[in-house]
Amino acid sequence: MLEPSILLPSLRESLAGMGQVLIDAVLPPRCPSCGDMVERQGSLCPPCWQKLRFIAEPACQRCATPVLGAPDGSIVCPACIVSPPVHDRARAALCYDSATAPMILAMKHRGRLQAVRAFGAWMARAGHDLFGESDGLVPVPLHRWRMLWRGYNQSSLLARAVARQVGLPVMDGALARRRATRSQQSLSGADRARNMAGDVFEAPARSLVEGRRLILVDDVLTTGSTLAACASALLEAGAAQVDVLVLARVVRGDLMTISSPGE
Questions:
Q1: Among the listed residues 216, 217, 207, the one whose alpha carbon sits nearest the alpha carbon of residue 242
Q2: Rounded to whole angstroms, how far apart are CA atoms 58 and 172?
Q3: Cα-Cα-Cα-Cα dihedral sign, residues 116, 117, 122, 123
Q4: Average pLDDT over all residues of the chain
Q5: Higher pLDDT, 55 or 253
């Protein structure tokens, strides 16, 4: 039997979703990015839609970074060759930039959940080749105090939105955050890694993890420190494979370019 601490996040998120439905029924639909009026809840206005940069192939199979000028087939970027990530494969729906940040931060910090269903559909499309080999979706967990303060875990809501598209179970109990950490949002890459050092995450129910092929779900991939810590905890608990699926990933500078042969 799962512990109440594992069940409560799902209950809170269900209540948060119900509250959002009531709000949507009363308030006029607005673009989740700029706030302008739109025809239906969760849809973007045409100008904001045109600014979105969806990540498509070619992209690195390990970190989902877009790669221009790459040959056909499976691609691994130079950074992942030099320093392979803990997880196996990664997929991202969008580039995290000035067009996507407002709606993602509004979902994460201000309870603007109208676009979660659309986010889930975009993520399902980005990760389409992962699902046939997976046993379940594992949201990156919040610490219980942050969960109490926020009232919902955006990663869990995204995982449920993806699950409705692909039919995989959401395994909230597979991973837990053992201790509170500073928010990663304002930290440098080195500070993010230090913030996630040690046993921040654990797999409290080994039977949920052992021998399973799992997909970690989060909102944004920046340096990968949080996802690395999560993947390490799952692999240490016996997971057979850990992939990553995120709504957006940070692409530093211009898109990476690999020279064609002979150049």
A1: 216
A2: 32
A3: positive
A4: 81
A5: 55
Is the predicted pLDDT of residue 260 greater than 50, yes or no? no
| Span 156-206, pLDDT tens digits | 999 999 999 999 999 998 998 875 554 545 444 454 444 444 477 888 888
∠ CA 109-124-180, nearest 5°, is 35
Helix axes 101-110, 154-166, angle to 10 degrees: 110
Token look-up 């067009």 returns 99
Contact 114, 41 (CB under 8 A): yes
Q: Both tokens of residue 168?
A: 């995989």
Can you give the pTM of this predicted structure?
A: 0.81
Amino acid identity of residue 163, one-letter, is A
Rounded to whole angstroms, how far apart are CA atoms 53 and 248?
10
Residue 191: per-residue pLDDT: 42
Structure tokens at 250: 């940070």
- Locate all alpha helices (DSSP H) within the chain, ordered by sequence: 4-26, 46-51, 78-82, 101-110, 116-126, 144-150, 154-166, 189-195, 206-209, 225-236
Structure confidence at residue 259 (pLDDT):
30
Half-sphere exposure of 33 (CA within 13 A, CB side): 18
Contacts 24+ apart (CB under 8 A), 10-15: 10/156, 10/172, 12/147, 12/151, 12/152, 13/152, 13/153, 13/156, 13/157, 13/160, 15/151
The Cα 189–Cα 184 span in angstroms is 9
* Residue in 221, 157, 190 with CA at minimum distance from that of residue 14: 157
